[in-house]
Amino acid sequence: MQKSKLWIGTSWKMNKTLAEAREYADTVAAAVEDDAGLTRSVEAFVIPSHTAIATVAERLGRWANTVGGFRVGAQNAHWQDSGAWTGEVSMPQIKDAGATMVEIGHSERRTHFHETVETTRFKVESALRHGLVPLLCIGEPAETRDRGHTCSYILAQARGALAGLQRQELAQVLIAYEPRWAIGALGRPARGEELAGPFAALRSEYGGVVAGLLYGGSVTLDNMPDLLALEDVDGLFVGRAAWHAEDFVELLRAGSRWCAGTGERQGRRV
User: Fold this and answer.
1) Per the record, GO CC terms (predicted)?
2) Is 50 known to be catalytic?
């Protein structure tokens, strides 16, 4: 299915030094300089570690906050503006560093750092209060999928995090469906039939309300066409397949071609 606009972004997780972050951002910036149409139809975003937010934002800042431009995000932030929260960073701090979006509720945060539906709601509200785009991550474990409870599970996560928001606030939110069994080095790529139901459920409740519904989980340049062909997918949240700048640029090119209707559904071309 041809789409008029796509979201394509990546989170680096706990990777890259400042030097590596500079090199990555400079490579991406040079590619955009060479091809002004690279992100014309793509809302691109990069979410580095906290230490590299300012560095990446400085180098991609020329295209920040523009249609078809780049956003730089943070992988997490606290819901309080300041205070005795040792080891945490606040929404005002990440915004001050150059972030315009924040990832909330990634499964690794939920599993290892006890992120709850309640804390995701606090963080979404705080992000919106400070003019940041919340990127809410939801997803079920394999045992929930096997019991056939995927839709109720992820809708509960989304509803809990977005409860009480007005329509104009919801319009600033991105939702990334990332089934836990499909992410990480040991993740299994999801099949189209496994994604159709969850995305139909999300579209039924949030379609035309939130800024976009994204898919993340073992995304590659090879499976990108089939994922974009899913009617309810507005974009892709890519992991390790975008950790090299050249690969991220190729994903952006592929997304741009897809929007232009020139994508090819075979090989490594899209």
Assistant:
1) cytosol
2) no
Which domain range does residue 61 map to? 6-260
Task: Please pick, among 43, 125, 140, 178, the residue that the annotation labels catalytic.
Answer: 178
Catalytic residue among 106, 115, 125, 250: 106
Does some domain include residue 75?
Answer: yes
Q: Is-above-0.85 flag for pTM?
A: yes
Is 178 among the catalytic positions? yes
**Kind of pairing between the strands at 174-177 and 42-47:** unpaired
Q: What is the CATH number of the domain that holds 23?
A: 3.20.20.70
Helices in the chain by DSSP H: which ranges? 18-34, 53-60, 91-97, 107-112, 117-129, 142-146, 150-162, 167-170, 192-206, 224-228, 245-260
Instruction: Count the Cβ atoms, other than its own, within 10 Å of residue 27.
Output: 15
Tell me the pLDDT tens digit for each residue of 228-252: 999 899 999 999 999 999 999 999 9
